[in-house]
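During the reporting period, our protein records have gained a structure token line. A sample record is set out beneath this paragraph:
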Amino acid sequence: MIMTGNDFSFGSLLRTFRNRRQFTQQQLAETIGETRRTLGRWERGDSLPASKALVLELARSLKLDEQETRQLLEASLTACSPYWSVPLPRNPYFTGREEILETLHRQLGVGQAVALTQSLALHGLGGVGKTQIALEYAYRHALEYSAVFWIAAETEEQIISSLRRIAKTLQLPEQDNPDQQRVVAAVQRWLSAQGQWLMIWDNVEDLKVFQRFLPSTRSGAILLTTRRQALGTLAWGLNVLPMGQEEGMLFVLRRAKVLFSETTSERMRHLAERLPVESEAVAELVTILEGLPLALDQAGAYLEATQCGLAAYLKLFRTHRATLLQLRGEGAHDHPASVSTTLTMVIRAASERHPAVQDLLRVCALLQADTIPEELFRQGVEPLGVPFSAICRDPLEWNRVVGVACSYSLLSRQPEAQTFSLHRLVQAVLLDTMTDEERERWNTRLIDALEALFPNVLHEADTPTWEQCEHLLPHVLLCLHRAEQASVSLPPASLAYKTACYLLRRGQYVEAERLYQRALQIREQALGPKHPEVATSLGGLAILFQIQGKYTQAEPLYRRALQIREQALGSEHPSVAAMLNNLAILSRNQGKYTEAEPPLQRALQIEEHSHGPEHPRTANVLANLAELYWEQGRYTEAEPLLWRALQIKERTLGPDSPEVVEPLYLLANLFRKQGRYTEAEPLCRRALQIGEQTVGSEHPEVAEILTGLANLLREQGLYAEAEPLYRRALQIGEQTLGSEHLRVTLILTDLAECSRMQGRDREAEHLYRSVLQIQERVLGAEHPKVADPLHGLANIYRDRNSYAEAESLYRRALLLQEQKLGRDHPDIAATLHSLALLRQKQGKLNEACALAQRALTIRAQVLGDAHPKTIATRTLLAQLVQDQEDGTEPPLEQLQTLLKVRGWSLHLKRRRGKPMSTRPEE
């Protein structure tokens, strides 16, 4: 006895089955070990059984067959399957496909080993019913799995969105984290740790993207739907063919509600005997539509909506088929004609019920088919046209239009997410029925609407704004791509530029570059090569190149943008100051310190005059000027500038604004350089916390802060705490910037030093050589940063007693530093100190003392007498003087006199043969 009425609730089913067995509530309750009151609550719908086992016990006691047991289990699904994340409802008209479903269960059942080791894929023609088969399998066998998840997998954005939904279902701590990578990783960890789950990936287009999001290990079943047949080793494929004749006929009759959903094939044959004309019509319809489930479903929907009858529908189809097929454009071979014809008739029927339905569908057709945001129609609607915008602003009329579209299954509405979706075949038919002029006109309107709605994040990093950008991004990219063949106009340039700025902030550099180039090209063609908007595009592209370490590509863009702005806006305009600031940063990154200061001083003067001394833009220039001084070892000049920049941003933007991260981090680094570790660490940790909360834990800026914190710990001898931070920073840098970016090489250099200080010389040498090779290729052999790996390698050779190799590297590093940094930079003092250690090991004490004396003078002047590095050099010098007094060389009386003048005491005492440390302080 299978329920065929409208009440499919658990309580109704239980009551029906109990009465059939002529059990009282008390009798059944005693049989299963529960109270009559509990059974009454179940039948009234006040509660549900707490476990699948209890439902199965009920089925056993009531002597239900397999189909009835499944029906009772499905009714209790909300209680028995706590981890259920399938956003699509079960298709009440699903028909047949039993052989495929049995194969899926045989391969993916919980008891099957293949479910733990191999994925299964349903592949075939678009619209053949792959998604509906997967959905039916999920509902039919849900209670056999510990969890069931559904991934919309056509694009990476959809996959991430689905994983976010799953994280909420699992109530993971990371579910609301703005950093999408952390959410993805949390779900993957859960899947690796748990077992007996089912995950369905619907509409997989890119197998590489799919593979990237899979958990590293798994003990659950994975089912794909895809149009691709070549799956390699990723999955075992199951080809889904169109419906057979009888199966298709039964499906159409059920969908049109000519027959009940539970009608069997045997009953359909009896219907054919009573209604031969209708039966012949539906048989011919299935043949014409080639048994494609989507086409059959839409035909049934049209029959239900219009009640025109099967024979009339078939006649209408015949008379319109040739005309409608002519509307098919490029790409018609991807979708059978019958689907196009059926959908076009449904679209026409819906539009006749409300004329605005056609406008709504046209707009949706030009966007990504999934997660179409309602906010586009409610907030950015003005550019879409006056009549349509008036309807969108009226909530009642808007719901009426959407309701009509949804009633014909042309749109699916997700009210909680406030999004729409439409099947891509519906989308294809809509696009094909529009003329080229109509497509261009509506796409232009959409670009205007998206441009008005898309936030400008060039100077922002707040999470709500970024979330809005993320929702709009796939639709923006599609519309911009479609507009590439259209006539040149400015709205696409503005939208491309704003989108590029967002992608830049998120570290998605490849797509950002393409859009910056697009905006530049359009503006040059539309406005001329000397327009200020052209300079804006040049500046954005230059920033991107600079962040990527492509300095030779960035510099001419900056200089051209600066020239345009000075000519068009005047030399004192704030936009000129911004370009001067960026150009100075570029010079600093290239080691051209003397070239960097004048434009920064000029930029600071312009900003203070234009915006005032307390404006955040003024603070930015102050921080950049301070960082330049810090790079030059001018610490006393840098500190007050950084404090002033930090205070300005805290007062104007708030203490937790992402804009305070830079001055915080720079201050922490400055204090570290000065040996003020207790002051540096809280600043660095505060910068890290704000950075992770705003830009996300996988952003390059966070990697830089992690490296700074690791350096701080390493210099205090806390190697075990420092190394994991280095490795996390390195992973972020390589993923977002690439393995040959300057920032990544700096992390490698610091990690190499950490390895060396722990006695892992081979590992350190490999890292230093990798850095040297990359920096010489990317920056050039004369860049001052090249001195860092040279110095590190020299230290390793010195400790191995390979004196000749060590000296050669020290000399080359010292030459680079003196040429680029001047003779009094603290980095030079570090090289001199290391070279003095080499001379000490060689027994050349006079030369060692001279080198140590020079290093001490620089460190005392720049770092101060109390700095740990100054103390280390002073201690080294004391050892060298003591070695001379103990040896045959004459004591350095002049050196002792100099030290006394400085107020330093060497605490010399006679000793014999004090052994050298294997890891001397550098």
